[in-house]
Amino acid sequence: MRHKIKRPQVEAHQIHFIQSISFNRSFLFLQFTNVDPSYINGNGTGSCRFQLVNMRQNVLFGFFTGNVTSPILRATSKPVTFRNPNEILQVHLAQGQSNSEMVVVWSTKNTTNNTVCYGDLIAPARCIPADVSTYTAADLCGPPASTTGWSDPGQIITATMTSLKPSTRYYYTVGSKNDVMSRRFSFRTPPDANPDAETNIIAFGDMGFGHLDGTNAYTRYLENPSLNTSRLILDQVNAGKADIVLHIGDLSYANGYSAEWDEFLYQIEPIASQVPYMVCDGNHESDSPNSSSYYDGNDSGGECGVPYERRFIMPRPETAKHWYGFDYGNVHVIMMSTEHDFTPDSEQLHFLDNHLQNVNREKTPWLIFAGHRPMYIDSTSSEGRSADQPVASLLRQHVEPLLKKYSANLAIWGHNHSYQRTCPVYNETCTAGATTHVVIGMGGAHHSNNAMPETPSWLEFQDRQFWGYSSIKTTKSKLEFWYIRDTDGVVYDYFTLEL
Q: How far apart (Å, rounded) are the C-alpha atoms in residues 290 and 288?
């Protein structure tokens, strides 16, 4: 696409990446034309490079003058067509309802006879049919998700691999017997729950996605630090040093722009196709007025949890009930939803109590509790029902007694884009044997620079300068925790817990 301007003004001219759909055009990503020096120098021509993720439909480019808030469309490209809209996309795994099951999810445009073939030898030995689902704009709760942000998610295809043997590497392919099958992927099943197992967990929150080419979303700056976080985690996975990933809410920051889920899943597929990628919901997945969310904000941009729960099939009691737990080796992990009611007599609080009561601590001596909004947080955010401090107080009032009752070893949280570690704490007092809380919202989103003037007495370490991830290793009697910063892979905090 070419468009010539006689007197280019660098700050006023942008190129927007746009996605064309049948009933609307939604401008999603942009680059400023000053990325090309020849355009700045005044000859009126230039070029930009964009990362194109297959979104199963045509893509257009537009050239704009004016500014981001009041753009004027000057020219559009011809439609860019993907060679195969039924390419196998967004492959990701999750633990099933038992350790002998693994769920795999992928996306295409419109295939039939979908299947996963898997086996513990090089050649897959068993093929089973997959289920197809999707969602429409009518399933969402409001704009922009149901209007300008809407694009067709295609088919969301799910299959559960069953009768898996423990501690075994399986190879699998997914796709359509009538169309195309994927390349071969592999994963290793967890061991049977037992105290002698060694478990390696990667955990973080609030990651988002990024682009290497200088692109930003039309509505916000992308989470480009997430690229380093993803790269370092993939290195750990490829080296066999990560058994499972926990992403503690605020996954893609799509905020109602459906195509941004495609971008996020493209970024995590190299990780999530090899190890279970376990998630809980955050405010940017679930919060929407007139929905089941406990808060009234619209941080999800009208998504109200629908893309999250349809794209990520966790071992929940039901699709729309965003709380669950599972064993992995010598660890039991329980995920709550801080975005849904957890007050007395709520279904979620009853679930948490009953579930924790039935954890076999002889088989899984380590108990890790997780949710998005923190129970302990150094933050000046205190105004409004959904602000950090009111939510933390509510969690301490209703959920913290369960952590004490069932002796949770570690609680991990996100939401605040920082790293914060407490002492073993109960009722805001450092207490031997109590739960240690860690905020791990440093996955890639822009930092929360809102520390209180006086550091709370229960806070032992915090960082708001770097991004990164946490690595957790458990043996029979010891839990080790590392905070790895993503600029250079250096350990920035380390602590241990012992039984």
A: 7
